[in-house]
Amino acid sequence: EPEVTQTPSHQVTQMGQEVILRCVPISNHLYFYWYRQILGQKVEFLVSFYNNEISEKSEIFDDQFSVERPDGSNFTLKIRSTKLEDSAMYFCAQIKAGTGVYEQYFGPGTRLTVT
Amino acid sequence: RKEVEQDPGPFNVPEGATVAFNCTYSNSASQSFFWYRQDCRKEPKLLMSVYSSGNEDGRFTAQLNRASQYISLLIRDSKLSDSATYLCVVNMPTGTASKLTFGTGTRLQVTL
After folding, report:
1. CB within 8 Å of B7: residues ≥ 6 apart
2. How far off is chain B from A69, nearest CA to CA, in Å?
3. What's the pLDDT tens digit per position in B60-89?
């Protein structure tokens, strides 16, 4: 079965720089999500995206964050001016179309290190 | 009260043992429940959805008690490869987007 992929696998950036994390979705998936996991902590919801619009966002997802589907396929998470505390694993996830239960499948993640 | 609460462990068990993990959730309106497995520095992988009637997948059995807001996972005949962190995950009823709320996870270490 096709899997969700993410690029890059690891990104190192300096504080204040912009980063763009990419997710390549599976074509028949509908809802898209971004989550993050700070090292040693639990996975936290950031934002959900459906029909090319944000459906919901958490308190973490402030004005520094944005999501897009720039070319109708890839799905990006942008952090405009990174802070040290943005260092985390960032996962995109999708729900498979046609399932009765909202099972979310996660990509392998991008490890973001802000120095 | 935390939205999803789990015993962090670690649980250290010998190969072949049976081990049970428990989880409680705070929102009684929660609709869907899952167990995910996460290996170190990897993505969460769906292990199984949890249904009200309980469900089994090979050596794994999940139970849901809505009245007590309690979810469990039982692993029989533990294998070394079962060593991982097990995440209790709940779908919070919010809009149509079905965001997931994760527990902190219970770490399992299976030894020879």
Report:
1. B21, B22, B106
2. 17
3. 999 999 999 999 999 999 999 999 999 999
